[in-house]
Amino acid sequence: MTVPSQYANHYIPVKFFLSSYRALSDGRNGIRHLGDQITQATFLLSEWKVIWIGTCALLRTAIDLFQVDAKSCLSPAIRHEISVEWKAIKDNKEDHSIFWEFLRQERDNIIHEYQWRAYETWIKPDGTFRDGGLSLLALAGDDAKLVLLMRGGPFVGRNSLDLLHEGADWVEARIFAAIRRAGFDPEESRGLVHFQSPPTFKGGGSILSGDNA
To answer: Is the pTM of this model over 0.70?
Structure first.
């Protein structure tokens, strides 16, 4: 992450120095947007696919960006631990199936075949399902709720939105684990240019705390 020198006195949390975390943040926005959209009365069934495709791609990209962060992060310790984390993901695929069997596979299906395993269906208060494709107006009388479920693969039958949340949490856990092993707190602030802590004033306050008495 390279920034102009005029930002020498600007500080941000350590996590935002990583391209992988910034991609994850955008992915979480996609998840929230998808969750909001499927509850709106004006939502068209075809629209969820666009959000699904973008969100899956972002979460997959967040992990791919480990290889970028391992070369570009200002902290050598974080660069090293990001490399270690990526190697562990590759070497222990059975422990990281959420990536290999969902995030990676779903993105590959979309890019190479324009196929996806999520599909829309309707669940009624009694727990029975209706097939997707019907209009919201047609189903308004039976209080059916639109949900996205997974077809095929190891996550068959899972709520697709829940699976996205789980995938995002897994990505965040991998990023934060690397940061903490490097000796940092993901939330602690560091300078944009030199990766230094904010200066401490007499009495213990910092430039960020406002306590500079």
So the answer is: yes
